[in-house]
């Protein structure tokens, strides 16, 4: 049996054979983040673009399709039950597996059960059953995310936040792309029920990571005088809001992704209106987009190291705002494979850069005593305004304005986030908010 010392030495030697720029991505923590990200990207795929395609195939009108974005609100409401997952130890399972891994198993099984229910629901026969199943997938997927985010952050060292954020983005998009393309290709040949059931295996990467990484160590949350439930909710929020610039930081988190979120939920509707087939969508939206994303994440890691957190976040916000213009161009061009490749490529490249920088910033905001609750607050707040906007009026806006003007509007919606972060940088509020969280090295 190989000794731990020899194993560690062999691992170090293997990493030294890689180019220096790649070595941080192949440490144990970031590699685990890759697997966790793959599982995290799966459930939301089943109720976002994939469900939009399924409902459109069943003849459901655009207003109803975009209203299903309400199921995604479970990801924004997860802060309401994150404190329970952060503090409550599951009987028996926590003793056997550890606190985080026990919750990972339970929430992972909930994802499998809810996606299976969505697979068996028929939009043409009973739209209400599809609604219930979609909301169940949203709740289970959001709960799964609470655990995966906390587990990932607690397994990363401060100096690994940039690489860990990048690998999380790689994993999320791999899981998202594979689940989306698998569903589309299988649905084209065997129908949507078989397609959804086929994707259930995408929960497995998280369980593999849990077996490999073990239970992370994290400091206990403080116990106050008001009781477990109140302390579980109040203490993490009080810690966050007591920081200098906390309210402006929260305002930025709320508005920075409005344009991106609103635009993303409409892409499949645009592709269908332009006459793209499922195979074309799988090839360009998933294939070209995936390659562009890989490039964006890699470049994002380099920019993060070269520019630092503040400037890399600002640059990524500008790029994500501009990327919406490419879909206005595609809408003008019509059914153009080259136009689709360019639009999807630029959007994913920009998202890759933003995922690294903004993801590292959000992780750094979290106090290790309240990881699950604070990251749930930050990640939920990051897209709630955009999702409310999308669910309430995206379909109506598209029908009233047309796709070209709609994507111009989403570009304008992204500007407040850019301006607010620039203000925060100049006032030193970004660094002030990080100081009591988990500041990055340097």
Quick synopsis:
By secondary structure, the chain is mostly helical. The chain is 79% helix and 0% strand. It starts with a helix and ends in a 7-residue tail after the last helix.
Annotation keywords:
single chain; 442 residues; mainly alpha; Growth Hormone, Chain: A; 21 helices; 0% strand; disordered N terminus
Give an overview in words.
Helices cover 79% and strands 0% of the residues. The protein has 442 residues and is mainly α. It has a single domain (25-435), classed as Growth Hormone, Chain: A. Helix 8 packs antiparallel against helix 11 (192-198). It is globular and about 55 Å long.
Q: What is the CATH C level class, in words?
A: Mainly Alpha
CATH A-level architecture: Up-down Bundle
Query: What is the end-to-end distance?
Result: 40 Å
Radius of gyration: 21 Å
Strand content: under 5%
* Shape call: globular
SS element count, helices:
21
SSE ordering: HHHHHHHHHHHHHHHHHHHHH
CATH topology: Growth Hormone, Chain: A
CATH superfamily: MFS general substrate transporter like domains
